[in-house]
Amino acid sequence: TVTAYEEEQREIRATAGHELFHLVQFLYGPQTSFSKATGVFGRPFFWLEEATSTWFEPLAVADPDYLPAIAKDNTAFIHTPLYFPESGNEQGHGYGASLFLRYLTQKYGPQLIGEVWHRAGDTYSKTGAEAVRAILQEPDFVTGGADSGSSSRILGKPGSAPPATADEVLD
Fold first, then answer.
1. pLDDT single digits (tens) 125-154
2. Among 14, 53, 58, which Cα is nearest to 32's?
3. Where are the alpha helices (DSSP H) in the chain?
C-alpha cells in the first residue's frame, strides 16, 4: 500500500519531470521560445508543449502505468481535433492530448516524441498537429504507412471546419 507521503513524492517527481520537459522544449526549438516571448501566432505549439510534457510524467516517476491527473481531467479533448482546441482551453486540450501521444508512442515507440519536435522545428510544420501528421505520414517511420484511422480523425485537416459532433470525431 502506498502512503500519502509516497504519493506526494511521486506527484512532485511527476511535476518536476513535466516542467523539465518544458525546459527541453524551450532549449530545443525556436518555435516555442519565440511564440512565448512575443505572444504571436496564437501559440500553435502550445497544446503540443503541454501534451509532450504530460506524456513525459510516467517516465519521470519510472512507472509506465502512471496516469497524470491533468490528463484524466481533460479527456474531453477527444471531441475536438488537435487543429481546433477550444478557445481558452488550449492548455487542458494539451493535457488530454497526452493520452493520444501515449497511444502513438506505445504503437510506434517513444522516439516519436523526438521526431515530432524535430518536425516542429522545421519550417514545414507551422502547428503541433502538422508536426505529428508529418511523422505519421512517413513510411520510414510508420511501418506500412500512416495510421489513417484514429490519427486522421483526431488530427483533422488544415483549413477544414471542426466536427459538429463527437460522433464525427469518432467515426
1. 778 888 888 888 887 776 544 444 444 444
2. 53
3. 4-28, 30-38, 46-60, 69-72, 90-108, 111-121, 128-136, 150-155, 166-170
d(CA 117, CA 135): 10
Q: Which amino acid is at 99?
A: L
| pLDDT for residue 63 | 96
- Contact (CB, 8 A) for 153 and 136: no
pLDDT at 148: 43
Residue 135, all three cell numbers: 511523422
The amino acid sitting at 158 is P
Q: Which residues of the chain have pLDDT under 50?
A: 38-40, 144-171
Backbone conformation region of residue 102, classed left if phi is above 0, alpha if psi is from -120 to 50, else beta: alpha
3-class secondary structure, 106: helix
